[in-house]
């Protein structure tokens, strides 16, 4: 029994760290609110209304969640399709982050749906073939499966099933292609969703280029998230790296920064073309115009320049900070399109309730806990035996048995 | 590409869309998208002939709210806090809700001129809600009604976002919520009856009939009294046309009928949707190409370094 406890959560006496206590409280509160939402309906917990049907759980959990989970397919494509093998050490943590990110998206979506238990119906009766949302739903479901299949080799290694592991490596390239195709489709479609609301979305954000913007910015979000996530995980989980693995994270960070800079550069000019296409220059000198310029100058042009500066001076720290800045920029863009510039004529305008914020925070926190739990057990940071602990179930069992 | 709701704006907008599609995903996609749109157009043609509608003449409406009372009764909705004959209700602007599928609002145009207007689902000729619905719970019927399958709906509320009139309403306070909106009395129509609100109207401000004939009637009234009416029928072209049509003595915007483009709403997303097959076909081939090129480079590099040894 004691052995099992150690196996599942480690030493129970070491559990009560400040981080665990605070995040644990958020999770408990969030779960409580989820119960209220399921029993009493969306109206008791959210600030949604008849004119604002989509709020934080779509704008943050789904829109931003999907964009920020793009690190998985971005890095998989870099390594497996574009053949840049030096980024290999970043693949597994990125896939795990992406996979957990998508699980978070689905949970968020389930909470937001009126009758989530009917979700299987869209597969049993695939009627909504003209619906952008149908396409998003199908792609997210398929991509979730692809991500599970992409991560499962770590699990086979953990169990010590060598033959299955070897068979799986043959699938990698096909999973990579499927991942990119499905991501291209649903990342862009999240933008297409808003094409049907030309009167509701502010003209500065409404554009026929929305699908292109959403896809391109998802690759930017993906690379930036890998920069941020790898720098965090290699610091926090350094003990999970094998003493024999040696790679220069700074060098990889600079390489990713270079890619992100190029993509931001293209994205910036595409946004300008969209602005000219809509002939919306006059709207720039309005409150919404200032918000738009903040996004375009402060969170697209500026990080582009900072990435270039960081790469040219080979300063990985600047690239990391820019990565975080860019992530916030993507968040701002998704918030603008789905919430702030949405229903811009409505007054009072929607703002999320503290309960919506808490539930979203709780879901993110659960994702962090799950990430930590998996990284501390499975071969995620490196495939060989790590400096601390073990990567295999068999070793773990014996190790924990000794301690217990 | 022609359609019966054709108007002057549609030709340039199609050119533009095709161009954007071209930019987005290449010429093949534009052709494919065009064909799909054309095919659905043909399939929809006969439906438009049989489509019914209601003509609302706001110059006749007296704001008695008999339509609201009839709607409430026919749909078995809960009785409101204040009775239907309480005129003070009109002092506040109201919106339709899950328990009121139609409401009458009063618009104070000037000190002496007050106009009342009934609002409800417009039952678009090509409904945005139906094209947006993830499971097509919103269905366009041949008689013009946009009906709702409450046994399929997931409650995603994309129909609410898509609808330019904010007609679908959601039961936020229920654990198993549904969308609620005017049904155009679809069941009554099947029995050969008029919609309850039309039947209840004491002054014939509402006229039920074939949409094509109501359009003629609307124009006849405008021609007969050109000084009374604004020379336009709201709903003839808006968002590709609506089953419910309005004529008025003041600009429609003053009656809460916002100016909308004549763009057929489902076509706003059909262009983007038509790139799906192209992405699915072209991306894997391109990516495989990338893979082989990079693979070759890798191998060549290895071979060269072996050779150097």
Characterize the structure shown.
The complex is a heterodimer of chains A (about 400) and B (about 300). Chain A is mostly helical and about 400 residues long. Chain A has one domain (about 1-404): Formate dehydrogenase/DMSO reductase domain (Formate dehydrogenase/DMSO reductase fold), CATH 1.20.1630. Chain A contains 16 helices and no strands. The longest helix of chain A has 30 residues, at about 250-280. Chain A starts with a helix and ends with a helix. In chain B, a hairpin with an 8-residue loop joins β6 and β7. A three-stranded mixed sheet of chain B has the order 8-1-9. In chain B, strands 2-3 form a two-stranded antiparallel ribbon. Chain B is of the alpha+beta class and about 300 residues long. Chain B has one domain (about 10-270): Alpha-Beta Plaits (2-Layer Sandwich). The relative contact order of chain B is 0.17. Chain B is about 40% helix and about 10% strand.
CATH class type of chain B:
Alpha Beta
Q: What is the rounded Rg of chain B?
A: 25 Å
- Give the helix tally of chain B: 10
The chain-level mean pLDDT of chain A equals 93
Low-confidence stretches of chain B: 1-39
Total strands of chain B: the figure is 9
**Estimated radius of gyration of chain A:** 22 Å
Per the CATH scheme, the topology name of chain A is Formate dehydrogenase/DMSO reductase fold
- For the termini of chain A, the CA-CA separation is 10 Å
Largest sheet of chain A: none
């Amino acid at each position: 029994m004691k052995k099992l406890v150690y196996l599942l959560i480690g030493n129970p006496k070491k559990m009560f760290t400040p981080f665990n206590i605070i995040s644990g409280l958020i999770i408990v509160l969030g779960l409580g609110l989820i119960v209220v939402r399921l029993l009493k309906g969306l109206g008791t917990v959210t600030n949604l209304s008849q004119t604002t049907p989509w709020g934080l759980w779509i704008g943050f959990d789904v829109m931003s969640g999907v964009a920020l989970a793009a690190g998985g397919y971005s890095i998989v494509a870099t390594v497996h399709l574009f053949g840049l093998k030096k980024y290999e050490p970043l693949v597994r943590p990125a896939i795990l982050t992406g996979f957990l990110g998508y699980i978070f998206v689905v949970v968020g979506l389930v909470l937001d749906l009126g009758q989530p238990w009917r979700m299987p119906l869209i597969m049993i009766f695939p009627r909504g073939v003209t619906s952008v949302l149908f396409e998003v739903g199908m792609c997210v479901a398929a991509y979730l499966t692809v991500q599970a299949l992409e991560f499962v080799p770590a699990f086979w290694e953990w169990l010590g099933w060598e033959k299955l592991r070897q068979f799986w490596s043959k699938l990698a390239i096909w999973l990579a292609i499927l991942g990119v195709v499905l991501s291209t489709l649903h990342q862009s479609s999240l933008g297409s969703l808003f094409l049907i609301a030309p009167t509701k979305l502010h003209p500065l954000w409404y554009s026929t280029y929305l699908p292109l913007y959403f896809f391109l910015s998802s690759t930017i979000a993906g690379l930036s998230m890998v920069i941020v996530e790898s720098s965090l995980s290699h610091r926090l989980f350094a003990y999970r790296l094998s003493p024999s693995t040696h790679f220069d994270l700074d060098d990889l960070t600079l390489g990713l920064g270079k890619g992100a800079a190029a993509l931001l550069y293209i994205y910036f000019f595409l946004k300008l073309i969209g602005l000219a296409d809509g002939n919306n220059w006059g709207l720039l000198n309005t409150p919404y115009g200032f918000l738009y310029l903040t996004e375009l100058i402060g969170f697209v042009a500026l990080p582009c320049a900072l990435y270039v500066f960081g790469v040219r001076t080979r300063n990985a720290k600047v690239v990391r900070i820019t990565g975080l800045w860019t992530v916030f920029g993507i968040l701002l863009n998704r918030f603008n399109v789905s919430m702030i510039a949405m229903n811009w004529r409505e007054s009072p305008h929607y703002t999320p309730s503290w309960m919506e914020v808490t539930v979203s925070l709780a879901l993110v926190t659960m994702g962090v806990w799950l990430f930590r739990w998996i990284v501390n057990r499975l071969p995620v940071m490196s495939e060989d035996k790590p400096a601390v602990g073990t990567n295999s179930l068999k070793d773990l069992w014996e190790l924990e048995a000794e301690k217990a | 590409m022609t359609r019966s709701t054709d108007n002057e704006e549609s030709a340039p907008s199609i050119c533009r869309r095709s161009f954007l599609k071209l930019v987005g995903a290449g010429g093949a996609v534009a052709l494919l998208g065009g064909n799909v749109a054309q095919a659905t157009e043909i399939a929809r043609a006969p439906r438009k002939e049989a489509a019914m509608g209601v003509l609302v003449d706001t110059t006749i409406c007296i704001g008695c709210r008999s339509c609201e009372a009839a709607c409430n009764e026919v749909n078995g909705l809960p009785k409101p806090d204040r009775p239907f004959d309480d005129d003070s209700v009109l002092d506040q602007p109201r919106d339709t809700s899950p328990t009121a599928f139609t409401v009458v609002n009063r618009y104070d145009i000037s000190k002496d001129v007050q106009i009342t207007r009934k609002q409800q689902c417009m039952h678009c000729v090509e409904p945005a809600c139906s094209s947006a619905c993830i499971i097509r719970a919103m269905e366009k019927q041949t008689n013009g009604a946009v009906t709702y399958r409450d046994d399929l709906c997931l409650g995603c509320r994309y129909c609410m976002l898509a609808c330019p009139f904010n007609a679908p309403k959601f039961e936020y306070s229920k654990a198993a919520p549904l969308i609620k909106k005017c049904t155009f009395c679809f069941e009554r129509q099947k029995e050969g009856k008029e919609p309850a609100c039309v039947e209840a109207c004491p002054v014939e401000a509402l006229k039920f009939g074939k949409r094509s004939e109501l359009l003629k009637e609307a124009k006849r009234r405008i021609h007969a009294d050109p000084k009374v009416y604004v020379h336009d029928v709201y709903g003839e072209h808006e968002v590709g046309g609506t089953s419910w049509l309005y004529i008025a003595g003041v600009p429609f915007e003053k009656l809460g009928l916002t100016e909308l483009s004549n763009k057929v709403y489902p076509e706003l997303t059909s262009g983007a949707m038509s790139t799906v097959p192209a992405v699915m076909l072209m991306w894997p081939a391109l990516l495989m190409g990338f893979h082989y090129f990079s693979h070759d480079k890798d191998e060549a590099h290895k071979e060269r370094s072996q050779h150097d040894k």
